[in-house]
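Archive entry. Fields below.
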Amino acid sequence: MAKLKMSKKSTKVDMTAMCDMAFLLLSFFIMTATAKVPEALPVETPASTVQTKLPDENLGTLSIAKGKVFYGVTGRDIRSETLKRMGEKYKVPFSDADLTKFALIDGFGVDIRQMKQLIDMKNEERMKENVQPGIPYDSINNQLTDWIQISRNVTKELHEKDLDIAIKGDAKEEYPTVKKVLDILQKQSKNNFFLVTGLRSEDF
Amino acid sequence: MAELNTGDGGGKKGGGKVRSKKSNPGVDLTAMVDLAFLLITFFILTTTLSKPQSMNLALPDEPKIDDPIPPETPAWRTLTIVLGSGDKVLWYSGRTDGPPLDGPVVSGYGKSGIRDLILSKKKGVDDRNKSLGEPDLEKVGITVILKPSEKSNYKNFVDILDEMAITGVKKYATVDITPADIKFLETNNIY
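PREDICTED_STRUCTURE:
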């Protein structure tokens, strides 16, 4: 009988193709990923089962936490034009350098009179807690209404679209604060908006 | 394949022929593939999680003075849910100026709480409409009235809106709380 020979095949696998594919996917994900920007007001959103994606453009975000309200819009052109008009309305002058610098700020929460100091701050300083006290939104000094109204007008003029409003409320925020913000929007006949939520399964 | 040959045939010193080394051009790719997949996993997870979800909320227009008075919904077609403190809700059917048709009863949120009640109420209204021979069941379906109290928080509000989406209630409205509702909450110790 012939002897059984162990085949001397190598156990190694050619990894070239796998490596190619892995890096192709890797470059794809790196390119599509969007960097997470730090927020001035940390908000822990409640969860819901509804999954509507937020629009990427022409969106104004109202963050509500600890009784403070912060506001931010997408689009640099809209941001600087909004600030310009707010300055005119409240008689606070802003230079062109201020306007370009403001266009890079994602969200803010200060009185329009303190806006100049906020713009002059460094990024890290601005993001610190308790630096920004929130936009005034009570009946005596309702700057939030003006911010929303003016940014909506600007969006309509520059992009010919109505600004979508997203509300990003903290889960523990008391309802009266949310109600006040909803009332402000409703008074401007902005009745349709997005509530930013996390995701959960249907049997919670 | 996939390895570099080093020091081949070290024992044969002083041999006559000088042989060219049979060097293998392949490199070990295992570590590289490992790293690539690790990074892929990282990027997949971060990109899908960072996209925020949202839910739509539509509120009615501010009522104007010369608006026509809307037709009244019969009391048996309504369900009022009052959001109280401590993650509790209180529900009743009908009006507050007399004894309500059903309730008031304290309940919680979610599957073990108010969901079954909403579903059974919805079915009850649909059945009664069917026996009345209503042509459009959706139009005359149940109307849920949500009344968040000052002691409820934003999470409760989102939870109850989510409950509307899960149970498929088409008609619901957020309404300001009334003193009668607060009295209900107070007697049930959730205000």
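CURATOR_NOTE: Residues 72 and 107 of chain A are 4 Å apart (CA to CA).
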